[in-house]
Amino acid sequence: MKKSLGLTIAILFIAAPALAAEPVYNTDAQPSPEVAPGVYGKMFNQVLSKFNLSIGGYVKLDYAYNSTNLGNNGVITPVSGAIPSKAISGTGTNSATFANQDQSVFSLKQSRIWFKVDGPSYAGSRTGAFFEVDFYGDNSASAESPMPRLRHAYGTIDWPRTQVLFGQYWDMFAPMLASTEDFRLASPQGAAYSRVPQIRLTQKMDFTADQQLKLVFAVQDPNQTGDNQGAVTGQYGPGVNYAGQIFYINKGLGVAPGYMSLTMNPLTVGVFGLYGTEKAPSNANKSLSSWGYGLYTFAPLLRSKDGVNRAMTLAFEGQAYTAGNLAYNSATSLSVVGTTPTGGTQGSTSNTLDAAGNQKPARNWAFIGQLKFFPIQDLGVTAGYGSRYAFNNGDYAGIANYQRQSRQIYANVTYDLNAAIRLATEYQNIETTYGNVNGVSGARASGVDNTVRLCAYYFF
Question: What is the average pLDDT score of the chain?
């Protein structure tokens, strides 16, 4: 018994240094050492996963002054592209009620946090996952009451030239993300975007060490008319959207800063497209097609001297497309157009009502281009122009206040104080031209907003 007791005491003495190295929290102490002194004191401990886990994100404070009232979510521009017009009557968000007001807004909702996992190998591949949230879960909530919102969440299986991705990621249609500081990315003005559940296959084909062809194919959620959601029953929306991209990439011509100036991109040119069908109750249960196709390019006009330094780099990025029934990602201003039955109503921002089945996809075409220049490593200047047009104004007969055109001119300047803190300022001039104003056939009017934005980031 004495020998056992002595052996136990000896083991405890040997282990004491290791035990002492662990953080010890005494929550009974007054005041609690975990929260005093300082803001959070010594509340610090290592977080582990069964796989290699990285964590990151940023805090972002936005201030925006808008010359019109853009509503509860006015810190960023409307995803619909609808700017209030002094010529539109009523109390809608695009009416004179809001056009005659200005707005001053602060927000932290664009702050983000993400987790990245490097997992185990599989059949000669690397596996991983990525999870990201921001705080736009309820756009109607006040600025000081943000809610988490899922942005990206996906798993990947990577071989040297092949990748399989499953989860929520950027929509395959219209790959350009315009570098606007409001992070609406000029989506209603030629840079349509969304994040959707999908399964994606990427295959790279090398021509030389610097040149390759990238082929991407995906099936993704068909949410363009919403008839596969809510209380709709029956065989509605069973067909997925099929989407593809073909890009030629040449790394031998150098690289220049891309989206948010955090990546360095090579010359990339190619085509993209999407197709799907979906039954619609408002169209006598007949199918409506969804489609779109376009061209994309990224060109390092002045390339980085070493592939890392941004000083004296200049890049052009642009795309053009035509689309039908893709309002969910702002590629079109409406989902569908058509005539209405007796006593029916015609929506101005979503589906129209046509029990006779005479609807057809609303069509738009758009283009956008931007230049990004870095005179020195930490100072970036971006300027761009984009516009979305109704493909055929005759399609919108009978639809009051439809969008003939939505266009945006933007310019911003960013400056990195260090590896964590970025300051930015931006100017946007956005105009929406409306047709059939107040229900008068052929009548036109415009709504114009001028926005000045200040931003402060802290990357971690």
Answer: 87
